[in-house]
C-alpha cells in the first residue's frame, strides 16, 4: 500500500487502527472519516489538498483497509463511535474539524452525541444518518452473511467489484477500483467484508437521530446529486434537523463524491473549514 501509507498504529478496543498525519504540526487539525466498504484511501486527493493549510489526520476503521481484521471482531457503528472517541483522545485533539463520509458520518455523530467528542465544525458527505438506510442488496447480504461468506474467491471478488463500482456515477478508474477491492480479498478480507455488513444495524442511527437538533456547531452537508445508494432527498431532510446546517449539492457525483468530484468537494470543504475556524 505504498501509494497511501498509514504508518502509525493505535491499539483500540476493537483492534489495531492504522493511521497517518499529513501537513505541518501546529496547523488546525482536520480529521477525515471514511465509510463502508471503503477506507481512508478514498480521501487521498482531498487530504493532500487540505494538508497545504491544515494538519490532516486519516485512519482506517477497525475491520477496514489496512487496519486489523479478525474473527469475532466488533465493527458495528456502536464500536466505531467508541474507537473514534479513543483515537481523538490519543491524538490529543480537543476540538478538531471533522469531515465524514457514509458510515463515517454515523460514527462521528455517535461520538459527538453519545460519547462527548467535541468538534469545532462538522462536514458530512452523503452520510448514513437517517432511517431507513441500506440498499436491497446490502440488506440481503446482511441477512445471509454466512452464505455469502462461503462464495468461491472469484465470485466474491466479482461481487465486491460490482458493489464498490456502483458507488460512483461516472465510474471508477480500474486501478482505483482494484485498490478499493483489495482489502476485502483473501483471508481475512473476505470474512471481514461480510462481517461489517452483518453488523450494520439501523438501531445505531435510531439512537441518535432524534438528537440531531442538539448539534450546536457549524455543520455542512454535502451530497452527490447522482447518489444511487442514499437518495439526495436525505440531505434536505438532514439539514432540516440540524440547527443552522447548510446543504451543498455536488453535481455529477454519485455516492463516492471523493472519487467523482474531488476538486469540487475540496473547494466546498476549504470554504467551509476556513469560515468555521
Automatic annotation (TrEMBL):
Keywords of the record, alphabetical order, are: Hydrolase
The family database entries (Gene3D superfamilies) matched by this protein are listed as: alpha/beta hydrolase (3.40.50.1820)
The source's superkingdom equals Bacteria
Molecular function terms, GO-annotated: hydrolase activity
Q: Where is the AB hydrolase-1 domain?
A: 29-262
Q: Which PANTHER family match?
A: HYDROLASE ALPHA/BETA FOLD FAMILY, PIMELOYL-[ACYL-CARRIER PROTEIN] METHYL ESTER ESTERASE
- What's the name of the protein? Alpha/beta hydrolase
* Originating species: Streptomyces coacervatus
